Amino acid sequence: MKYLLMLTLSLFIFNNNKTLSDVMPNDIFSAIEVIELQMTSLQTNSGINNAGIYQCWLFAHPENKKYTGPFSNFTRMITNTSYKILLNSLKFQTKLLSKDKKNVKYSVIVDAYDNKRYILNWSLEKAKVNKNCKNCWMTSAVTQPQFIGQLN
Fold first, then answer.
1. What pTM does this model have?
2. Element (H or E) spanning 11, and its range?
3. Are 115 and 151 in contact (CB under 8 A)?
4. What are the residues whose beta carbons fall under 8 Å from the beta carbon of 22, sequence distance 6 or more?
5. Contact, 81 vs 116, CB < 8 A?
6. Which residues contact 40 (CB under 8 A, 6 or more apart)?
7. What are the chain's domains?
8. What value does the mean pLDDT of the chain take?
């Protein structure tokens, strides 16, 4: 699934000369695809325009945005807190923890740029935002990263 998403995004980016931030929430994305899109965007974030952070923010649930604030606040939250380990990470793994029709929770293990491994819980809920996102998965919460070990 991850490879199909990356191929689709690569074709979209290179064939249409667009950036990742042009991928909008849509009913076609599964919950795991949303996490993979967000994590991959954060891995490849450009410090110049923060397109990866912006892509991640686009898939934040409207209720979550009430707490994280506008994009400028979200950017500060990612770059100036423990969440900065999500930027330029080396790799990540996901594991399904629970799922029902409207909610899903995954654990995400991140091998960070600082040669440390962290774990977070990523929660998504179904949302209605526009005509293309009447029942789409969006991130409702992400726990603080917890250190779980050094990388070899």
1. 0.85
2. helix 2-16
3. yes
4. 12, 16
5. no
6. 5, 6, 9, 20
7. 2-150 (3.10.450.630)
8. 89
Task: Say how many C-beta atoms besides its own lie within 10 A of residue 81's C-beta.
Answer: 11
Residue at 147: amino acid letter: F
Segment 117-146 mean pLDDT: 97
Report residue 71 CA to chain centroid gap.
14
Q: DSSP alpha helices (H): ranges in 17-151? A: 31-43, 51-58, 62-68, 71-79
Q: Which residues pair with 84 in a beta bridge?
A: none
End-to-end CA distance of the chain: 28
One-letter amino acid of 81: T
Specify whether the CB–CB gap between 146 and 119 falls below 8 A.
yes
- Say whether 2 sits in a helix, a strand or coil: helix
pLDDT digits (tens, 9 = 90+) for 45-80: 988 899 999 999 999 999 999 999 899 999 999 999
Half-sphere exposure of 107 (CA within 13 A, CB side): 8
Contact 122, 95 (CB under 8 A): no
> pLDDT confidence of 21, banded at 50, 70, 90?
low
